[in-house]
From TrEMBL:
It comes from Myroides indicus. Keywords: Cell membrane, Membrane, Transmembrane, Transmembrane helix. PANTHER family: MEMBRANE PROTEIN, MEMBRANE PROTEIN-RELATED. It is a multi-pass membrane protein. NCBIfam families: integ_memb_HG. This is Integral membrane protein.
Length: 95
């Protein structure tokens, strides 16, 4: 399940970046709101899946509250899920 979570984190992070740096500029600078509807919905679904999976993994993997809070907070920051995945799972910095 951890591998699936890492993949969801990657997709969630990409969807946030696409929303912020492609879809929103298209909406506000070129008056094309369609991209925000599509990407926004995809990002919303991925965000919910990400948080649910993080909660399940917190219980299954017995993560500390600190690790869980950092993982959840990373989902709302641009590039946050990429940095979190590297620091939390590749280097095992926070137990």
């Amino acid at each position: 399940m951890l591998k699936l979570f890492k993949n969801v984190a990657l997709l969630e992070g990409i969807s946030l970046l696409v929303l912020l740096f492609i879809a929103m500029p298209l909406k506000y600078f070129l008056d094309q709101p369609g991209a925000v509807r599509i990407v926004g919905m995809a990002h919303g679904i991925l965000f919910v899946i990400y948080i649910v999976m993080a909660t399940v993994l917190k219980i299954d993997e017995k993560w500390s509250f600190k690790k869980y809070a950092i993982i959840c907070a990373a989902s709302v920051l641009p590039f946050g899920t990429f940095i979190m995945e590297y620091k939390m799972f590749n280097q095992n910095k926070v137990k």
